[in-house]
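User: For a benchmark we're assembling, each entry needs the component sequences followed by a predicted structure for the full assembly. Here are entry 17's components. Please fill in the structure.
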Amino acid sequence: MTRHIQLTEQGKLKHFLTIEGLDKELLTEILDTAESFAGMSEHQVKKVPLLRGKTIVNLFFENSTRTRTTFELAATRLSADVLSMNIATSATSKGESLLDTIHNLEAMHVDMFVVRHALSGAAHFIAQHTAPHISVINAGDGQHAHPTQAMLDMFTIRQHKKQFVGLKVAIVGDILHSRVARSQILALNTLGVSEVRVIAPKTLLPAQVKTMGVIPMHDMDEGLDDVDVVIMLRLQKERMNSAFLPSESEFFRCFGLTEAKLKRAKADAIVMHPGPINRGVEIASSVADGPQSVILQQVSNGVAVRMAIMSMAMHSQGGVA
Amino acid sequence: MNKILIKNGRVIDPANNIDAIGSVCIAGGKIVSVLEQAADFTAEQTIDANGQIVCPGFVDFSVRLREPGHTQKGNILSETRAALSAGVTSLCLPPDTKPCIDSPAVVEFIKDKAEKADYPNLYSIGALTQRLGGSELSAMFALKQAGCIAVSNASEPLGNLLILRRAMEYAATHDLLLMYRANEPALSGKGCAHEGAVASRYGLPGIPEAAESIALAQCLELAELTGCRVHISQISCKQSVIKLQQAKKYGLNVTADVAIHQLHLTEDNITPFDSNYHVLPPLRSAIDRQYLREGLVNGTIDAICSDHQPHDLDAKLGAFPETEAGVAALETLLPLTLALTQQHRIGLLQAIASLTCKPAQILGLASGTLKPGSAADVCIFDPQASWQVNRDNWLSAGCNTPYWQQTLTGRVTHTLLAGKVVYGLAELP
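Assistant: Structure for entry 17:
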């Protein structure tokens, strides 16, 4: 059903809500399309007219700077008109007000919603209730999914490693609360890496993490041994408050990425982070700014990957110039 | 009063171990005879129940009528009509109305409405604590005097174990049954799904089994300490079944029910984010479901209830975690119970017992049986009749069921309340 709601009858991307249910061919198509956009930012004219006349609404019910900005930039480079809305939500905000917002914007004849929301399932909900000609792109829903982030990470991995087969990838940190990690795990497994390890204390792993197609580990030295890619996750400060962890310093001691720990990985291993970084909490500055870090490339790649996803979703709706 | 003859039906009365083709004679609102017809009985009304099953009206441990206080979701009229159409003639009403049932006035309000003709038997469950706040005991004696059949704190937490202990002691003082929804709030938190594979994958806040089984274990310990009669409401997991089984074997006077949806659905059904599957306690794993089914067969679980919770549309419109929990379940209770007998090794007699005489015995009601002399609350249903769950076949104000648009088998054709036909499928427009 997840597949059904995201794809047209011809199997083309209509909404982009989660990696679940999408096959290797489609993910590869996204990466290939992004590749064709990637060179564009170096051009004098950074625009293509693919989405000219289309209106894209960034609907952010949760704060974000980087994700929103790259979506805006991606839409602008596709020549779409962009409207960004930050809608502060409270815990008591009701579904009806969310739907009312959606229906009001629909009445203004928009073509695409890019949605970020604090609750898992919000993007699915909007996709299920929006008019059929509108595409919904999930820019992060609760702890469920952040599929465009996962795809820009896959893009970055492919840039450096050329292919996915045979790769060993370690994802380190707060897996439990991470929509990024959930989407990365699905994408990595779909693209055929040989191993996905998740390294975290048990308090920060989902209860049934083994059913997610990963190898759970609790020791960095063992977990980073011989890996090709290290993905560090951001640790939210509020995790100290509800007995997930004793302190930032103890977390850094056990799970922070230092130069010494990184030596366990392959010599050409790359270090990734979805940002924003907590230096000295999950990653040492010398690693974040070091030669193996590709963190800023991830940010640059975000624009091309989002251009690819937006143009593909609009294309399947039949409205692309 | 009307003399009614129900003839040619398959009469099932688990309380008296009856399962045979025959008639049921009713006069003066009471059952006169079962299987044989007294020579001097002349019926004024005859119902031919050929091919149908005739059994006692169902006794349901948990039905939210939503009145007073939440009438946008349903009301006494709409939900009791739904109950009668589903063969449910005795309903226990949890105290979480608004205002809640913590004073005789609210009990009287419901009773007054119920007495206005043809309503099923409504039994208020009194609040265990004032305003369901979990800290001060309610006036249980006054509630009992007003007609409350039991006390419970519904889904609201109690402040601490001392309050539960005192509440049990006080309830036992007045010989009140204490109904308990086992849930340790510190462990369930803001969870909205079983802490299993689906919640892990979907990033939904999870509720571990231990949130239920720890609270259950504490409650059982205190039941032994205080001697209070305890009924555990709507258990959902394997560990609860095991703990109850041990307690019963040990001789503790404890009973339990399960919501019908827990015997059919699992966490896998909620994908992707279908709020009609948002229930509390959450739908759990297939293993838990298996234990619940076995618990029903071996008697660890005494009764099946609908745990009927109608909602307005808005309550279910939203991202999964923010939607309200609960299923409108009265009208699917019978077909889903029958499906259990067909698909699994639960006998029809036992299944009907878990809807009739077993809950009645726990509640101390004389109903739930066709014994001559008892009130003629009777359900007649066609076990083969298929029907689609849709607006035309649905009386509850809440359409929040995972079975919407699905075709189910087994349908009530007549419901009799104190010897009067209060629902007849054929007479519907």
